[in-house]
Amino acid sequence: MPIRVDQMMQLLCRVAREKEMKAAVKHTFRGGIVTITTAFVGGLLGGPPGLAVGGALGGLLGAWMTSGQFKPVPEILMELPPAEQQKLCNEAIAIVRNLDWIDIFQLTVLVMGSGDLKFLLARAVERFLVRELSAEIKYEE
Question: C-alpha angle with apex 62: 16 to 37, nearest 5 degrees?
């Protein structure tokens, strides 16, 4: 049975909400830019000692920036670009493909009534976020 991407995303959001999944997406690129910029400014203002101090301070600030704040996974999923949503949808469809369902409502009932299916879909979301966004996942339950 064909399923639209937005329907699958809603189902994955429901699973993630029930599992109380949160993710911290690391902003490594931004942290690196901050580190380089502060080292450069320190070098301009203070010569070699300024470069060392600027690099150290920039490194600390960059590390703090890359630690990320945890956000609910459903929020992250809905903010994904359409191409990324399609990739995740394809991975989820591979899990439910062989189930006997007629429409999204029946599929939702099947998934939400099965701990195993919820686990498999939650793991697919987790793997996707770790692989594609370098996210760190935690569960509140």
Answer: 135
As given in the structure block, the two tokens for residue 96 are 């439910």
Residue 139 structure tokens: 């569960």
State pLDDT tens for residues 29-49: 566 677 778 878 888 888 888
Q: Return the percentage of the chain with pLDDT > 70, whole number.
A: 89
**Of 18, 8, 138, 19, which is closest to residue 80 (Cα–Cα)?**
8
The partner residues of 70 in beta bridges, in order of sequence, read 24
Residue showing tokens 């670009």: 81
pTM, rounded to two decimals: 0.70
Q: What is the DSSP-derived secondary structure letter of residue 8?
A: H
What is the C-alpha to C-alpha distance for residues 115 and 110, in angstroms, rounded to an integer? Answer: 10
DSSP reduced 3-state for 138: strand
> Is 21 in contact with 71 (CB distance < 8 Å)?
no
| Angle between helices 82-96 and 115-133 in degrees, nearest 10 | 150
